[in-house]
Design a protein that fits this description.
mainly alpha; 8 helices; 50% helix
Length: 169
């Protein structure tokens, strides 16, 4: 697939793993087996890095410095860490200074897995939107608040998009 993408001018190939039903994505703590597999496709990414003509990025639950270093040591060009950066926007700088992450998002422990997953992802997007406005993360944000705020933000974005579509037609 990478060989097919290269002549098309693709800048980067992202290998991503994980599931919205995984414990980490729903805010529940992961067991030791899951924690040990933080970079879900590290072996595949390392294999592909040896032959890929395009830069590779590995994404998928990476929250620890040692894991990010393993990814880069395997020849992968970039590490994707959306959730980790939503919680600690200056995480790479902290790691350079041997500092820790700021903390963790409030776990979503709702019994409905679908709603818990949606709320967990809403918490991440809520923090990313705060960071985009220059604000610090609020790690204690209630999942219901994040879910409501996320819904409002998505509706607003959809209205802007529809307006833009109408203007460009």
């Amino acid at each position: 697939m990478i060989a097919l993408l290269e002549p098309l001018g693709v800048d980067l190939v992202e290998l991503s793993g994980g599931s919205y039903e995984s414990p980490a994505m729903s805010g529940r703590p992961a067991d030791s087996r899951t924690r040990a597999r933080e970079a879900y496709f590290l072996d595949l990414a390392t294999d592909l890095a040896g032959t890929s003509a395009l830069p590779l990025m590995l994404t998928g639950g990476i929250t620890q410095r040692a894991t990010a270093e393993d990814v880069l040591a395997g020849g992968v060009d970039m590490v994707g860490m959306g959730t980790a950066l939503a919680v600690t926007p200056d995480l790479p700088d902290r790691w350079r200074a041997d500092g820790p992450a700021a903390g963790r998002l409030k776990p979503v422990t709702w019994s409905d897995k679908t709603l818990a997953s949606a709320a967990g992802m809403a918490l991440v997007r809520y923090q990313l939107r705060r960071a985009a406005r220059g604000k610090s993360p609020r790690l204690g944000t209630h999942p219901a608040h994040a879910l409501l705020a996320d819904n409002v933000a998505e509706r607003r974005a959809l209205r802007h998009y529809r307006t833009w579509l109408g203007a460009s037609a």
